[in-house]
């Protein structure tokens, strides 16, 4: 054996992204074992990476793994682990949103090490920082491989990051709305979408430059009295920002499991 055995309980979209990222390069794991849940994703992954193994049941995943990734829907957790026996020497890495460690212990009856995580789709390309709590070698080994690890001070701070992840589709819908408006003004839909997608994707290098604070990025991308400033001040004014903060507060409470 060259490394620990990694198992996945649930193979939905996030688990699929994780497995793609892990399997597409050098791996620190002796084996990667998938549960039969998420049949289409399992079939696609094993077709691409034939050395992945598919267990007959969730119980078999746990029995054959040292590190177990919990990647089922929170409401399906109890069903997924029914009849499953965890060993005290295992490490559980939870990708369940809004389920605190205390609740996981209650449902699983597990007193070993549990690491919470917030993996995002770009882990499939090893290109996304993952928030984990608490700091644990099993978590850092896994997520450093997938783009990097960020460990907050406590589980309360972890929940703040959980709330942030709820903003992504709102951003995408913002981009979609701009593209739709462009089309409504007579532009060909394909041209509108091509331009708008390209324009927003072009912001990625600036966002990755951690030496440029976000308030500076705003200033760098607008001219006083220019078009960008007009839209930002006219639409995303103080009232709109307060509304966003209120929604984030509500999401934070939900991410805390309350």
Automatic annotation (TrEMBL):
Gene: proC_1
SUPFAM superfamilies recorded: NAD(P)-binding Rossmann-fold domains (SSF51735)
UniProt organism field: Brevibacterium samyangense
Protein name per Swiss-Prot or TrEMBL: Pyrroline-5-carboxylate reductase
Family listed: Belongs to the pyrroline-5-carboxylate reductase family.
Cited Pfam families: F420_oxidored (PF03807)
Pyrroline-5-carboxylate reductase catalytic N-terminal domain: residues covered: 5-98
């Amino acid at each position: 054996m060259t490394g620990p055995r990694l198992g996945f309980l649930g193979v939905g979209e996030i688990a699929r992204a994780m497995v793609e990222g892990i399997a597409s390069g050098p791996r620190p794991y002796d084996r990667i074992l998938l549960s039969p849940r998420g049949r289409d994703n399992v079939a696609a992954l094993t077709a691409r990476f034939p050395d992945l193994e598919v267990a007959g049941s969730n119980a078999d995943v746990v029995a054959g793994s040292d590190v177990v990734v919990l990647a089922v829907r929170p409401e399906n957790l109890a069903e997924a682990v029914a009849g499953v026996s965890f060993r005290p020497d295992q490490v559980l890495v939870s990708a369940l949103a809004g389920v605190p460690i205390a609740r996981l212990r209650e449902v699983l009856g597990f007193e070993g090490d549990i690491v919470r995580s917030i993996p995002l789709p770009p882990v499939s390309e090893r290109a996304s920082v993952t928030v984990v709590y608490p700091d644990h070698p099993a978590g850092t080994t896994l997520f450093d491989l997938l783009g990097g690890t960020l460990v907050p001070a406590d589980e309360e701070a972890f929940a703040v990051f959980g709330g942030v992840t709820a903003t992504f589709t709102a951003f995408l819908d913002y981009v979609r709305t701009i593209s739709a408006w462009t089309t409504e003004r007579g532009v060909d839909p394909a041209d509108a979408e091509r331009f708008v997608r390209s324009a927003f994707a072009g912001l990625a290098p600036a966002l990755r430059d951690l030496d440029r604070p976000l308030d500076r990025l705003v200033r760098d991308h607008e001219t006083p009295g220019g078009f960008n400033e007009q839209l930002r001040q006219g639409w995303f004014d103080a009232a709109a920002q307060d509304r966003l903060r209120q929604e984030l507060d509500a999401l934070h409470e939900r991410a805390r499991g309350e």
